[in-house]
Specification:
- By secondary structure, this protein is mainly α.
- Among the domains are: 130 residues, no CATH class; 50 residues, no CATH class.
- Strands 1-2 form a two-stranded antiparallel ribbon.
- α22 runs parallel beside α24.
- It is globular.
- The N terminus is likely disordered.
- Belongs to the IFRD family.
- It comes from Daphnia lumholtzi.
- Keywords: Coiled coil, Proteasome.
- One of its GO terms (cellular component) is proteasome complex.
Length: 742
């Protein structure tokens, strides 16, 4: 690639990423008063009348707003927008579709130029809908990616990169294919996927035309940085040290050249001096500032290992370097020894390995094999249950949601079930009410339709019920919305009431009814006491009928729902009572007024308590022993709640903290999250901000470094054995040898 300026071959610098770098530079303490950078930034703002961007800069940098300058820019922006709107209207009335598209595109580009992000994205979306050409659609997507990179909007970048990849597969031209690789490489570098970034950059060294992102010299700098940390020595030599395009530019990048060749030529002292310069440069680069400590630490490890911990050492001479055909078995085994030398490196490496595996599983959710997709979804669910990874999930939010939605829409049975569970876990991982509400609003319609789809698998519908209830619970919906969701869930489990007495219901259908009832009860905990009191008059009868179900989970769920209603209604009315007789009996006895209210209340309570006592002491042999034990334990607590108004008293210890469960509502919420997270519940209680907010646990505790590393059980056993042996030897010397004393 020639070094001369070839910007005319690239797209326009809109938005200009150099301005984002200027703004970032001024946020650094050592440069916040740099007059030259501030002047460059203000000159660019004045030149393009960037009123929205100027307001953003003043807010982030705590500058005093120049009111006359801002008002003047706003007036000129409004005049320009009016002219663009007139041009769009004229094109729609008098010209063709191509002219309409061009008019909309000009407006979108202008909004992007002045820094109005939301309006620009909306205008580009409208322009995209009017665009037919594949190449022009890709150009709009590239524009959206640049906006995402300008504002570091990871969701916007990942979503548009995925769209660009799908369009490229349909038949993108050579130039746009290479351009997409540069965009992917830059974003991979931003999210610390240095290996992928190195691959993308090296593929486009000789075809680089993406001057709208960066200068070619900056591109070469990034390529060298990424290659040195990601490539083995033989590839580093062939692709970078002997790369003609890179060498041509390195003559003007003396710091990068010295850094590269001091490492390659084994000049240890010079390398660490140059590494310090690289560290400073990376700390002042907005794309690498959050990773420069990690990068420097990794480079130090590579150099200091010097063959001791890596199968392919970098700091060795060419004569001593291993051939390309060397066995990699020793590399794998030796790599383990490096990790064992430092706990910090081990922990970091394990996290990176996990993230790499999760990325692979995300890609595998689109494979052709249905069982393979199910396994990938299950692996993601298992990881997000066992680990709290909000940053990883937030950076791939739209990708993961698209995978889950695709799995529910196009999959069958087990795939729909695992995809629905993944969606619930994403709500919990993101840890924001706004994110949960967005997920709930976007997927509510389809979740409702799948939940009511009788042709779908009962197991999948059961998981959809649980996901729907959890999403609505986390989304902080208003009362009317919660009631609508509860009505939809009630329509599922109420079919158990309408079934004929001799009908045998399959276990999968009973599981569906149990899941719907559990989700209904979870939302019941959000209702105000007055609403629970009103609801009790109609729902208690139905729940009592479910106590006769053949499924133990459904019986226990109905009993806990009664306890929840009883607990909430008693907050409103301490003398709460209800009629448990069937609806037919109620109709037959409407005219009978023989019993006064007090005696009727007593008889109803006695009848309910008698039914609960039967379940609490059930010993029928046709029930499984485990089911009998679980049922008796649950209904004893439910009976105490009805008779004595006794709330649960459970203390759950996790780490150094304790969660006190002192109400049926809190207990059911805890049980619902336990069902979702399984063994990862304690970890999420300790780290997940949203879960801690739900259970009023406050901010997460800081880890105590002294207690961070626990002794393994086997090591503890050996230590105890050694102590026992030493103690026995010491005592043996002082014991009476039972010698005869005369």
């Amino acid at each position: 690639m020639p070094v001369e300026n070839l910007e005319h071959e690239g797209l326009a610098k809109n938005p200009n990423l150099e301005l984002a770098q200027y703004k970032f530079y001024l946020t650094l303490d050592q440069h916040k008063n740099d007059a030259s950078v501030k002047q460059k930034l203000m000159d660019a703002i004045r030149a393009d009348d960037m009123a929205p961007f100027y307001e953003e800069v003043c807010k982030e940098l705590n500058w005093t707003v120049d009111a006359p300058l801002l008002s003047g820019m706003k007036e000129r922006n409004e005049a320009k927008l009016k002219a663009l709107d007139v041009a769009i209207e004229d094109a729609e009335q008098n010209l063709g579709e191509m002219e309409v598209r061009e008019s909309n595109l000009k407006k979108a580009e202008f909004l992007c130029l002045i820094g109005n992000k939301d309006a620009a994205l909306s205008a580009f979306r409208k322009t995209y809908d009017k665009t037919v050409s594949l190449g022009h659609r890709l150009d709009i997507i590239f524009h959206n990616i640049r906006i995402g990179l300008f504002y570091m909007d990871h969701d916007l970048v990942t979503r548009n990169i995925d769209r660009a990849k799908s369009l490229i597969e349909e038949g993108g031209d050579w130039d746009r294919r290479n351009r997409l690789k540069v965009y992917q490489g830059l974003y991979s570098m931003v999210i610390r996927d240095f290996k992928a970034a190195s691959g993308f950059f090296l593929d486009t060294v000789s075809t680089f035309t993406s001057y709208e992102l960066m200068e070619y010299s900056t591109f070469v700098r990034y390529t060298v940085y990424m290659g040195m940390i990601a490539l083995p020595r033989n590839q580093l030599r062939d692709k970078i040290v002997r790369g003609s395009e890179i060498l041509e530019v390195l003559h003007s990048l003396s710091d990068v050249k010295d850094y590269l060749f001091s490492m390659y030529n084994c000049l240890y002292a010079d390398f660490f001096v140059n590494l310090a310069k690289v560290e400073l440069a990376m700390s002042e680069d907005r794309h690498l500032a959050s990773h420069y400590r990690f990068y420097v630490r990794e480079m130090r490890i590579q150099v200091k290992s010097s063959g001791r911990g890596r199968g392919e050492p970098l700091i060795v001479s060419d004569e001593d370097s291993q051939p390309d055909t060397v066995s990699v078995v020793s590399s794998v085994s030796d790599n383990r020894s490096v990790l064992e030398e430092g706990g910090e490196t081990d922990e970091r490496t394990q996290v990176e390995i996990l993230e790499d595996k999760l990325k692979e599983f995300i890609d595998l959710t689109t494979q052709k094999s249905s069982q393979g997709r199910v396994n990938s979804f299950n692996a993601l669910c298992q990881a997000f249950s066992a680990k709290y990874m909000p940053d990883f999930v937030a950076g791939r939010r739209m990708t993961l949601l698209d995978c889950a939605e695709r799995g529910m829409k196009k999959g069958k049975g087990a795939e729909q079930e695992s995809a629905a569970k993944l969606m619930a876990l994403l709500c919990l991982q993101l840890g924001s009410v706004a994110d949960s509400e967005s997920i709930y609003r976007d997927h509510k319609t389809y979740l409702l339709s799948l939940m009511a789809d009788k042709s779908a698998s009962p197991a999948a519908r059961a998981q959809v019920c649980s996901t729907f209830g959890l999403c609505a619970f986390l989304a902080d919906c208003d009362l009317s919305e919660i009631v609508q969701v509860m009505i939809a869930l009630e329509s599922i489990f109420s079919t158990s009431l309408r079934a004929p007495e001799n009908t045998v219901t399959s276990p999968d259908v009973l599981r569906l009814h149990s899941a719907a009832l559990s989700a209904w009860s979870l939302l019941l905990t959000l209702l105000p006491p007055r609403h629970i009191y009103d609801l009790s008059q109609t729902h208690i009868r139905r729940l009592v009928q479910l106590l006769d179900s053949t499924d133990v989970d459904l019986r226990i769920g109905a009993g806990e729902a009664i306890a929840l209603i009883y607990e909430g209604a008693r907050v409103f009315d301490e003398d709460f009572g209800f009629d448990i007789s069937s609806e037919e009996e109620t109709d037959d006895h409407d005219g009978i007024q023989q019993m006064d209210s007090a005696s009727r209340h007593t008889s109803e309570m006695d009848e309910l308590c008698t039914k609960l006592k039967q379940l609490a002491t059930d010993s029928h042999k046709y029930r499984a022993k485990k089911d009998r034990k679980q049922q008796r334990s649950s209904f004893r607590d439910i009976l105490h709640a009805i008779e004595e108004n006794e709330a649960p008293d459970v203390r759950i210890k996790f780490g150094k903290e304790t969660l006190d469960i002192d109400s049926w509502g809190c207990k059911h919420q805890y049980d619902s999250f336990c069902q979702l997270l399984g063994s990862g519940m304690n970890l999420h209680l300790a780290q997940n901000d949203l879960l801690r907010e739900i259970f009023s646990l406050g901010n997460p505790l800081l880890d105590n470094a002294s207690n961070a590393v626990k002794i393994k059980k086997l090591e503890r056993h050996h230590m105890n054995m050694a102590a026992f042996k030493a103690r026995s030897l010491t005592r043996g010397k002082n014991r009476d040898k039972r010698t005869a004393v005369f």
